[in-house]
Design goal:
Layout lengths: L11 E5 L5 H10 L4 E6 L2 H13 L4 E5 L5 H15 L4 E4 L14 H22 L8 E7 L10 H21 L5 E7 L11 H12 L9 E4 L2
Parallel strand pairs: 1-2, 1-4, 2-3, 4-5, 5-6, 6-7
Helix pairs in contact: 1-2, 1-6, 3-4, 4-5
Organism: Nocardioides oleivorans
Protein name: SDR family oxidoreductase
Pfam families: adh_short
Length: about 220
């Protein structure tokens, strides 16, 4: 693990499933607001590509490669981030599996493998982060309209997105008495390079959801562009 995040007064975001799309845009959006950034991803080269842009925004950046379906590896990575920074102000969860199989060809093992990534890994990282979350900390998840309007050609994706949204509702209820809230931002459109559904626009919606005041908090926020 490359540990560059330092203990100071700056808030910290941990981005799980860090990559070049929405998660990278989320990291940059929070870095632009003065957050230090910890990246947990599956590809070292991708993480290395993200770091210079984040540092240019003034963020101290730590990054680790881990398979988030490996519970021990994921817990250890998040715990190391927490121990190093002393705090986790935002935990953003982005992973999901896209498998082009309809429900007549998708096997149970394949479905469970995908759900382990897109839903189960959220449990792992939240439980690992919990000692470092304090009143005011937030958990955010990249949701999708596939939860309500699944495409049968990639049947497991809709199951993942419906499941992770449901889990976010439960997390929010479980943590709210401690001042910690969780939100799933449902992206009601297809990601694109231009228009309303660019990764940067989605990241802006996630920033807006995370920074919503307690009195107006919702555990699901649709982003319709």
């Amino acid at each position: 693990m490359n540990e560059q995040v330092h203990e100071d007064s700056k808030p910290v975001i941990v981005v799980v499933g860090a990559g070049p799309g929405v998660s990278g845009s989320v990291a940059r959006r929070f870095a632009s607001e003065g957050y230090d950034v910890a990246l947990l991803g599956a590809d070292q080269a991708v993480l290395d590509d993200l770091v210079p842009g984040l540092e240019a925004l003034g963020a101290a950046v730590g990054h680790t490669v881990a398979d988030v379906t490996d519970e021990r590896a994921a817990r250890d990575a998040v715990r190391r981030f927490g121990e190093h920074t002393g705090r986790i102000d935002v935990l953003h969860f982005n992973p999901s599996a896209y498998r082009e199989k309809d429900p007549l060809t998708l096997t149970v093992d394949e479905l469970l493998t995908d759900v382990a990534l897109g839903v189960g890994a959220l449990l792992t990282v939240v439980q690992a982060a919990r000692p470092y979350l304090v009143a005011g900390s937030r958990i955010s998840v990249t949701g999708s309209m596939a939860a309500d309007e699944p495409w049968q050609g990639a049947a497991s994706l809709g199951v993942q997105k419906a499941g992770v949204r449901n889990l976010v509702h439960s997390l929010d209820k479980s943590l709210q008495d401690d001042g910690i809230r969780a939100v799933s931002v449902t992206v009601c459109g297809a990601l694109a390079r231009d228009g309303a559904f660019t990764p940067d626009r989605v990241a802006e919606a996630i920033w807006s959801a995370v920074t919503t005041g307690e009195g107006d908090w919702l555990s699901e926020v649709p982003y319709r562009g």
